[in-house]
Structure formats: structure tokens, C-alpha cells
Amino acid sequence: MIDVLVVFCPQQSAEMDDVKSLLSTLGEVQFHCALDGAEALKRLRRQASIHLIVVGTHLAADTSTPVDDHGWIAFCDAARTTARAPIVLMAPRLTGALLKECDRFSKLRPLDDRSELLATAQEFLRATASPVVHLDIRVTASDSGWSYTMQGMDDFEFRAADRLTVHRSAWMLWTGLHHTDEYWYLDFKRIGDSIRTCLCDENPRFKLDLDMASTRAVIRAANLGFLPSQAIVESQVTFLVSKTYYPLVLEAIFHPNRAEEPWLAYTRLGRRLLGSRSERGDLFHTGSGPLRALIVCADTHGFCDDPAVSGRTLKLKALTKIQDECKRIAARLSRIDPNTGRPWFSDANIRQLGKGGEPVSERALMEAMREGPWDLVHFAGHSYFRAPDREGDVGSGYLFVGKPGKPEAVKFSYVASFLRAARFVYLSSCESGSSSFAVEATANGIHSAIGYRWSVNDGTADLQARLFYRDLLRYRSVDMAFWNARRCMYRRYTHKQNIWASAMLVSPES
User: Fold this and answer.
1) What order do you get walking across the sheet with 503-508 strand by strand?
2) 411 burial class (0-12, 13-18, 19+ CB within 10 angstroms)?
3) Are 29 and 220 in contact (CB under 8 A)?
4) Which CATH architecture best describes the domain 2-128?
5) What is the bridge-based pairing of β-strands 503-508 and 448-452?
6) Could you read off the pLDDT of 69-112 as tens digits, one per residue?
7) pTM score, whole prediction
8) Selecting from 3.30.505.50, 3.40.1370.10, 3.40.50.150, 3.40.50.1460, what CATH number does the domain 293-508 have?
């Protein structure tokens, strides 16, 4: 939808009608009309997304003042403080004095020939608009059924919603397989193709709505003067899942129209846990900082024989990269923000456990937790997910601390209970994106958490963490930083390692 503000005095109402008739050929146009400067400014403030302003030279400042041959000047002066939309000035003739006045304003084009209006409008709209539209797609998997919504973002007008039919026999195949062998990508693609087939082929309305959004994007691009081939739909996909459906590898879905690639390779794709609430806002919605960060380098390894953890002996490998990972993160967080001249995390507000290889005990970990509230917590080390013994359970998650050769298991539910004030938690460890970790994190009000669905290599986990924190402070957005880091890892390790497929960003429903 293109929003156009048309401002002419009552005596030029016929010219206003001609302008609307000409510009209506642009396609989906919504006209906002005003007969004096004051009314036009009210409409401009009310409709923030005005794309183009067409104004006549003869204009009154308000209903109590007479029409002035130069009334447009006062209006344009005021309009420039409210909006940056381009302005087309329709004049009876282009005199030297008028052109000199027009030079005062940026993005203003005077015209005395009505036949040039359409081409000028297309030129302005092409320069200020984009052929890219944004579509928010949400797929809900709840115990009461499956459904979806699609909604255009910003100025892209599109809405769709419907129920989905997903049989149990289908989604039982989409469980969290441990893709650790060399053929893991084949399994990942099999699941992704199955999800795509179910949503699109077996629920044709979903695919039809996606295609309809693409068609609307093409029409919009053409209206703005772009070629149809330049129209792009950038999707943002969110899976809202209940605890029952959390283990499903829904992020594996392959694109409906580009079956050669998983959708997450070029789409912001995340998940939220239904029924959960966040006690605090997003990491950077706190003002200007500084924030507080806790970095835990749990550099332990060896054998864990605790039967409560797994029922078998676990061998934890030595991790060679986590010291570097934590050191780099601390240095990155304390950098000066060029916009404010201050760090988001001052050195005094960054607490490091395990620095220099010092062992982290359970007692030291819990004492550090009590020193909160912490805005950001980064844990690098080993973790383990014990699968549930019965349906409906979420299993148990454990973090490992302790001296090298003597690992100690700490239940994550216990740790999470001390993190109710945390805004963001990054678990750089194996299986830390599994259901028990996610459920405990969101149940304790943590706004967002990153973990890994399967086992990961500590070298690539270090690289992903570096990429993430680089963009976290650059964009001040957990979502953006996570998406950029995963896209980089996908390009580098597409069929080689599963880290980009394993990484998960989880947040509460609201």
C-alpha cells in the first residue's frame, strides 16, 4: 500500500481530483487529503508512513486565514520537521523566484506540467522505497492443534491464517535425532523435506498463502517502479511450541520453493515456548547501560559416574578452546560503544569464573549466581541432557564444573532458579538446547537463551560465539546476532559440521 498526502486549497479541488486520478494508476494507493496547512500537518502526524506529498502553491495556513499564493512554503517548512517524505509541488508556472524558494528544501520537485506527475512520483517512490517486503510467519504447535499466521510487516499489507492438519505419524519422525555421524545431513534433510511436505503439500492453503504473498510483493514492486523480478519476500519464521512439541526439529524445514536449501540458511528462524513469560525485557531494552555479565569457563573433563545424571559413565573430553572463547567474549563486551562513548559492559561489571584455568566448583558457581542480578550469563564447558523416562516429561539437564579429572554435575533447574533476573543466557555446550534446558530457562523468566540441540565441537562453538558477540554489540539485537552467526556457520560448514543446524535460540511466548 502506497500512502499519498494531497494538499490543495478548496478552490483547487478539481486539480486535487486530477492528481488522485493520475496517481491511482500506481496500484494500491491510499490518499490522505487536506485543504489547508494545519489540517495537512495533522494528517501527516497521524499517518507516519506517508510515502509521497503532493501540494499546491496556493494554500491557507489554517481555516481562519485566507489562501496565500506562497502558502506552500510555511507548510513545507513545518512538514520537514515531521516527515522526510518527498514532496511534489504543483505550480501554475515555474518562475525564477519559485525555483529559488524550492532550493531550500531537500527532496522537493516543482512541476507546472501535470503530465509529468506520474513519472516523478514513480521516481521518488523508487528512490525512497524498496522492492523487498517483510513477512512474519508463525507456526503454532500446541496441544490443542496446529495453526499458522502470516502478516506483512512495515508497509506491506498482507494477512493470512488457517488451521494445519499434522498427523502424529508425521511429527513423530521429526524428533531430535543426534546427528553425529558423517551422514547427519542426510537425516537432517529427510526431516526437513518431511516438514515441508506436511506443511505445504498436505496443507495446500499454507503454500497458497506463501505464493499469494509473493504475488502481492511483485505487484507492490511494480507499483513503485521496480521490475517484477526485483521483488523479494524476506520471511521471518517463528515456531511457537508447547512442551510436547519442543523436541521436534522444526527448524530443519526446507524452503517450499527452494528445496535445495534449508529455510534457516537465509531466514530468521527461531522458536518460542508457549505458556512461558519473561520477567524482564530484551537484553538492550534497559537504557544506556552499563549491564552486568557473568562468564563461566568450566574447564573440566574426565569421567562422571553419578547414576542420577545418566545411569552410565560419561566421558567428558578435554576442551582446548573454551579459555580463548571466554577471554575473547570478556574483551568484546567491555569495548566502547562508539555511539555513546561508554561500554555496554564495564570491566567492573564483568565477572569471570575459571579465568586462567582456575577450577570452577559448584560452590563458586552458586556464589557467583547469588552476586546477581546478571543481565547476561555465558557458560562454556560440558553439559548433558537426560532424555525423559515417560511421555509428557521434559527430561533433565546438567552443567559440569569441577577440577580437571573430577567433574561435578549441577542440575540446570537449580542454576536457573538463581537466574530469574537474567535477560540472556548463552550455553556454549553440548545438548544445551534440549527441552529441559529451554523449559527451565523460560520458566525462570529468562528472556532468551541460546544452546545446542546436539553435541558440538568446541572449536566451532568458539567460532560461533565470537561471531555472535561481534554482531550482538554491533546491532544490539540477540535475534539479529544469532541469525547472522548461524548464516556464516552454514556457509562455512554446510555439509561438514552440524553446528549451524544444532544452534537454537529460544524465548518465551511473550
Assistant:
1) 159-164, 145-152, 132-142, 232-241, 268-273, 503-508, 448-452, 424-428, 376-380, 293-297, 350-353
2) middle
3) no
4) 3-Layer(aba) Sandwich (3.40)
5) antiparallel
6) 778 888 888 887 777 788 888 888 888 888 888 888 878 888 88
7) 0.75
8) 3.40.50.1460
